[in-house]
Amino acid sequence: DVKVTQSSRYLVKRTGEKVFLECVQDMDHENMFWYRQDPGLGLRLIYFSYDVKMKEKGDIPEGYSVSREKKERFSLILESASTNQTSMYLCASSFVGMDRGQYEQYFGPGTRLTVT
Amino acid sequence: DAKTTQPTSMDCAEGRAANLPCNHSTISGNEYVYWYRQIHSQGPQYIIHGLKNNETNEMASLIITEDRKSSTLILPHATLRDTAVYYCIVRDKGGDAGGTSYGKLTFGQGTILTVHP
Fold it and tell me: How far A62 CA lies from chain B's nearest CA (Å)?
C-alpha cells in the first residue's frame, strides 16, 4: 500500500514563527503536492514538485516556500506564519506513467495548523 | 478542467447500495472521471477513475453514460465507515494522453454521504 506520512497531525505556532511541515512517501513517486483545505473553499494547491529540486507554484503560493532535496520528501515552509495560514495542510504524491500521464494522487492524513 | 455538479448530501441504509451521481456535461474527449472521498479529519482517498468504459475495483464501481456527460459511483454494500464526503473530479491526464494538466486536482464541494444503521 502507498503510504504518505506527515510529520504532525496537529501544530500550534505563534505569528511570525518559521514553520516546517514535512511529508514523506514510500512509493518512489515522482510528483508531490501540498494543498491546504479550508471550509467552503475546498482544496487549493500551494506548490507541487515533479522531481528532486524541481518545484512549481500552484494557485496560492504566497507566503509559502517548498524544498525537495530527496525524492521521497517534500517540505512546506511558512517563512513567517500568519493567522490567515491557519488551515488543514495536505500532502499528496503520484507517479508519472510511461505515457507521461498524471495518475491518481495519494494523500497523507493532514496537519491541522493553528497560528495564534 | 470540466466542472462537475453533485448533490449536496445523500443518505443510505447500511448494507444497501449507495449510488452517487455526478454531472459533467462539458467533459472533453481526453478528460477522465475520478472519484475521491474524504472521511472526517482524514486526507482524501482515491477510489476509482474511468474514461469511457465502466470500471470496478475492490472499493466501488463507476458507471459512465455513453455520452460521458454524467457518471455514477456505486458502493455495492455501504457500511457505516463509508460515511464521508465524495468528490467527483474531471481532468485530463496530461502527457501522451493529451491535455495540459500537471496533475492538479480541483475538488468541488462534493456529496456528503451518510450511511445509517
Answer: 17
A109 Cβ under 8 Å from any chain B Cβ: yes
Among candidate residues B94, B99, B50, the one with its CA nearest the CA of residue B70:
B50
* A103/B44 touch (CB, cutoff 8 Å), yes or no: no
Residue B97 main-chain phi, psi, to 5 deg: -80, -5
Contact list in B for residue A101 (CB cut-off 8 A) is 93-97
Please report the pLDDT score of residue A41 as a whole number.
85
Q: What number is the average pLDDT over the span B106-114?
A: 90
User: Which among A73, A71, A62 has a CA at the least distance from the CA of A36?
Assistant: A62
Task: Measure Cα distances from A12 to A60, A102, A104, B16, B97 in Å.
Answer: 22, 34, 31, 42, 43
Interface touch B105/A43, C-beta < 8 Å = yes
Give the model confidence (pLDDT) of A34-84 as tens digits.
999 998 888 899 999 988 988 999 989 999 999 999 999 999 999 999 999
Contacts of A45 in chain B (CB under 8 A): 104-105
Per-residue pLDDT reduced to its tens digit, A12-27: 999 999 999 999 999 9
